[in-house]
């Protein structure tokens, strides 16, 4: 399966305030890209999945 690059943007809650983010991730499909984003934001900023809101997913083929 081909890897695509997805740009994912949204917000996450950190210490009571909402912060915006935008990430580029490589994944097989949109669902894997969402999961990878949850994992990356959660591990870097120590927030749970329910504190992360993905607003937009756009993909481009490599």
UniProtKB/TrEMBL annotation:
Q: Which residues form the Large ribosomal subunit protein eL20 domain?
A: 4-58
Tell me one GO molecular function of this protein: structural constituent of ribosome
A GO CC term? Answer: ribonucleoprotein complex
Keyword set includes Calcium: no
* Domain of life of the organism encoding this protein: Archaea
For biological process, the GO terms are: translation
Assigned keywords, A-Z: Ribonucleoprotein, Ribosomal protein, RNA-binding, rRNA-binding
Spell out the subunit comment. Part of the 50S ribosomal subunit. Binds 23S rRNA.
Family indicated by similarity? Belongs to the eukaryotic ribosomal protein eL20 family.
Q: What is this protein called?
A: Large ribosomal subunit protein eL20
Q: Which gene encodes it?
A: rpl18a
